[in-house]
Design goal:
CATH class of the largest domain: Alpha Beta
Number of helices: 12
CATH architecture of the largest domain: 3-Layer(aba) Sandwich
Radius of gyration: 21 Å
Largest sheet: 7 strands, mixed
Number of domains: 2
CATH superfamily of the largest domain: Type I PLP-dependent aspartate aminotransferase-like (Major domain)
CATH topology of the largest domain: Aspartate Aminotransferase, domain 2
Shape: globular
Helix content: 25-40%
Distance between the termini: 20 Å
Order of helices and strands: HHEHEHEHEHEEEEEHHHEEEEHHEH
Number of strands: 14
Strand content: 5-15%
Length: 397
């Protein structure tokens, strides 16, 4: 039984006619850059993210870069973030001449460990970029409290987290900025690169809109030095169609995650040797000995009373012998991925920061032990059971 890590063709087959009509309308209009289709998507996405302003941009990387530029962050400044994330998070900071300052992750959520955050703030710190990794929000209450106390800007890296929630608030609506990616593999993915920046502040929204067109307002008059960070109308057309289906796809991912939880528990693998995520998009009961017991509900995810909504951009397990397991699963035609094999503080390009192995042990351990399993909406229960059975057979060998 083949279980690919991701099957975008299955998703496309279900929406082919809608997408074709939307793209054809753009082609017929010959309005490819900015314009009403982009504006319509921005309005719809702002409503979805529950923010008053959303600025479509060229990629998730450019969304992060643009937010930093809007705050005039540059040489001499420091920005706190996670060493366990996609490169763009810290790369955008360094690209502007600022210094990435890393805070280790919590082992149960893979997001910033709040207990280490405040100690890394200096008189050069200008911003915090919490990463909502794998579709699960960081502790935004704690982060915002620290940020406000020290007068720091908060830029949410929500590139994997559109629609995720923390205490009833959507990712991208809590900090000063929210940054999203529409890379094709994301829960909301385009037919190429694309991104979005959200904000609650009208002045920030105006500056973002100016910066994405070379700092120009009006035409050929430049207030700032910006860049070409525009979202194409064809991408906006595709995303407009997909946004209407996003909640149903998210619910399917949550159901698939619940299936994995159930199958792992039934196989006797929950927590030993397989480590499951600690925050779920459904009910979790914590036993007296702090072990996790899963209660899979037949209610829709939106009706569950919870503090966090996990959208499962990835479903990640933590295992010993991770690389051996990945090779074994490949022989069973099961797709997997390692996010991420080298934490940022150990990347060659960041050697100038002076970090060494052991500086951020939880990030390093996650890099060695985590493995993402197929969780896209079209995964069947039979496929999920096959994945878990294959993992169980590996650990019995």
């Amino acid at each position: 039984m083949k279980v690919p890590l991701l099957d975008l063709k299955a998703q496309y087959a279900a929406i082919r006619d809608e997408v074709s009509a939307a793209m054809t309308a753009v082609v017929e209009s010959q309005y490819f850059i900015m314009g009403p289709v982009v504006a319509g998507f921005e309005k719809a996405c702002a409503a979805y993210c529950r923010t008053p302003y959303a600025i479509g941009v060229s990629s998730g990387t450019d969304a992060l870069l643009l937010a930093l530029m809007a705050e005039n962050i540059g040489p001499g400044d420091e920005v706190i973030t996670s060493p366990y994330t996609f490169f763009a998070t810290a790369g955008s900071i360094a690209r502007l001449g600022a210094k990435p300052v890393f805070v280790d992750i919590a082992p149960n959520t893979y997001n910033l460990n709040m207990s280490n955050l405040e100690s890394q703030i200096s008189n050069r710190t200008k911003a915090i970029i919490p990463v909502h990794l794998y579709g699960q929000c960081a502790d935004m209450d704690g982060i915002m409290n620290v940020a406000r106390r020290h007068k720091l800007v908060v830029i949410e890296d929500a590139c994997q987290a559109i629609g995720s929630e923390w205490n009833g608030r959507r990712a991208g609506s809590i900090g000063d900025f929210g940054c999203f990616s529409f890379f094709p593999s994301k829960n909301l993915g385009g037919f190429g690169d694309g991104g979005l920046v959200t904000t609650n502040d009208p002045a920030r929204a105006e500056k973002l809109a100016i910066l994405r067109v070379h700092g120009m307002q009006p035409k050929y008059y430049h207030k700032f030095i910006g860049g070409n960070f525009r979202l194409d109308a064809l991408q906006a057309a595709v995303l407009n169609v997909k946004l209407k289906h996003l909640d149903s796809w998210t619910e399917a991912r949550q159901r698939n995650a619940a299936r994995y939880d159930r199958h792992f528990t039934e196989a006797g693998l929950a927590g030993n040797p397989v480590g499951l995520p600690q925050v779920f998009a459904r009910e979790v009961l914590v036993t007296a000995d702090s072990g996790l017991r899963f209660q899979v509900s037949d209610r829709t995810p939106s009706s569950l009373d919870r503090t966090a909504r996990h959208i499962f951009n990835q479903y990640v397990i933590r295992v010993p012998r991770r690389d051996e397991l990945q090779k074994f699963l490949a022989t069973q035609e099961i797709g997997t991925e390692v996010y991420y094999p080298v934490p940022l503080h150990l990347q060659e390009c960041f050697a100038y920061l002076g970090h060494k192995p052991g500086d951020f042990p939880e990030s390093e351990r996650a890099a060695k032990e985590t493995l993402a399993l197929p969780v896209y909406p079209e995964v069947t229960d039979e496929q999920a059971a096959h994945v878990v059975d294959s993992i169980a057979r590996f650990f019995r060998i």
